[in-house]
């Protein structure tokens, strides 16, 4: 089976300095996979590598069966590999509807995509004419994910879904993310700090520590063995 996205023995970083080191990771269509790890573990670096923003130093980076060409993230997005960055990047002065429209226009999509977004995020319906800057943090995150959804991605990567959000909001959004994956057959890779919550609402998970995979497996198994999970965050940096 061709994975929707895949890192195989992948090493990547900044200015030739490795941050991710020999990472194997994949996400299949319809799966929600959590990418966990402490601060600076390399989670964002992994997403940027898969999105074609960063070039790998070694190893294989594939998306939708093709090698990812770094430096052309817009092409990746057009092909259906979309990253929602942790700053959400909604246009504060534009209304919700205009934000969604921009996603559609730039990718030449049809108008029923707004209905699709509202199907998954009905809380945005009364906000369609409200400037995005006036939305709550949770609504802005729904808009950011909704805008990504408007392009009908085959791969959706979300960096720090919960950044600045109340746990209750995250608790509401995670089941929706899972429904999107199941109903649209989208491969979803989630970076998330609320470990227990995301493990409850994902199929599999990887824990990154110092740029290496310290633990991986079914989310339910990881959730059931907290000792091993906690230990995976505490692995000492390997001596090089
Ligand atoms: N643009 C950059 N140039 C150089 N080093 C960077 C750059 N961005 C990140 N790094 C370094 O790469 C390492 C991994 O960063 P990354 O952002 O991938 O971690 P993370 O797991 O997403 O952490 P966090 O949860 O804190 O965002 C860190 O040591 C960080 O300082």
Automatic annotation (TrEMBL):
InterPro entries the UniProt entry points to: AAA+_ATPase, ABC_transporter-like_ATP-bd, ABC_transporter-like_CS, BCAA_Transport_ATP-bd_LivF, P-loop_NTPase
Domain ABC transporter residues, every copy: 2-235
PANTHER family: HIGH-AFFINITY BRANCHED-CHAIN AMINO ACID TRANSPORT ATP-BINDING PROTEIN LIVF
UniProt keyword ATP-binding present: yes
A Pfam family the protein falls into: ABC_tran
Protein name listed in UniProt: ABC transporter ATP-binding protein
Molecular function in Gene Ontology: ATP binding
Signal peptide positions (record): none
Family to which the UniProt record says this protein belongs: Belongs to the ABC transporter superfamily.
Alphabetical keyword list: Amino-acid transport, ATP-binding, Nucleotide-binding, Transport
Gene3D superfamilies: P-loop containing nucleotide triphosphate hydrolases
